[in-house]
Recover the amino acids of this structure.
């Protein structure tokens, strides 16, 4: 995998030089250059970043992350990514899989594996682990490049099933040994609930009930741990979603307002400007 290309988050597979892909379901390529978006975007594919050199930083669903070589990160469909920075020596292999492709794998423990990934999206790799993942990438590349093979997709699926079985073990193991405080776990659980219900629920007592806590206790722990109130986190996630929709879709501002369950476009506009400092239209146009 010696080919190098620039990472363009909006590019289609066929538009990325030297990308190996099958339809819009699976593609893989290596890069050392980042052409990042300067705004949040919602992943519509599973994105595996296998960091070979250097490091990259950003946020996944508002939580900060750092992928430092050798390591792998996995972002799931529906999660919102924000790029912050990468070192000049950053080098990685990116593997992207559509939801349709993931569903076709029929992994029996898919839920538990993806739950481990959501809880801990980045794991460091030992030499043996990195070598195994690189072998998977090399085998996938060879299969995809034999374009007249009618069984390409089936072979890629079977190789990826093996990949996820091995990866699931590493993520489960990493989750077991990771030492997280009770407060950090509560913040993670709170943000998971916000991701699920932010379009309809912005009341702190709703999330406290979900977590079987009092509103006062939840607010206190969130504030003490993060320096921000629970209400601020909820508002920030709603605006994050709005920004992703404004920049990544052709939905009208009214449609986005409706999608996020605001009573009117005017109310949405005032809310968005209060949090981000600019109107939805200004943010979309700049």
């Amino acid at each position: 995998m010696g080919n190098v290309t620039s990472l363009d988050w909006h590019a289609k597979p066929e538009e990325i030089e030297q990308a190996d892909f099958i339809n819009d379901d699976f593609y893989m390529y290596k890069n050392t250059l980042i052409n990042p978006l300067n705004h949040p975007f919602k992943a519509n594919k599973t994105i595996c970043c296998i960091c070979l050199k250097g490091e990259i930083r950003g946020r996944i669903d508002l939580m900060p992350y750092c992928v430092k070589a050798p390591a792998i990160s996995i972002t799931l469909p529906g999660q919102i990514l924000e790029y912050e920075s990468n070192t000049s020596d950053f080098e990685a292999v990116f593997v992207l899989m559509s939801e349709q492709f993931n569903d076709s794998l029929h992994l029996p423990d898919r839920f538990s594996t993806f739950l481990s990934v959501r809880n801990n999206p980045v794991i460091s790799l030992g030499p043996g682990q990195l070598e195994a993942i690189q072998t998977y990438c090399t085998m996938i590349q060879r299969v995809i490049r034999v374009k007249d093979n009618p069984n390409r997709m089936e072979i890629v699926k079977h190789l990826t099933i093996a990949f996820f079985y091995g990866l699931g073990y590493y993520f489960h193991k990493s989750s077991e040994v990771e030492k997280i405080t009770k407060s950090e776990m509560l913040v993670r659980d709170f943000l998971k609930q916000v991701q699920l219900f932010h379009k309809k629920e912005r009341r702190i007592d709703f999330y406290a009930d979900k977590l079987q806590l009092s509103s006062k206790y939840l607010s206190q722990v969130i504030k003490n741990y993060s320096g921000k109130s629970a209400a601020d986190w909820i508002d920030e996630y709603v605006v994050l979603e709005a920004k992703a929709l404004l920049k990544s879709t052709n939905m009208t501002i009214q449609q986005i307002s409706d999608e996020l369950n605001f009573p009117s476009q005017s109310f949405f506009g005032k809310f968005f400007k209060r949090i981000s400092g600019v109107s939805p239209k200004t943010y979309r146009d700049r």
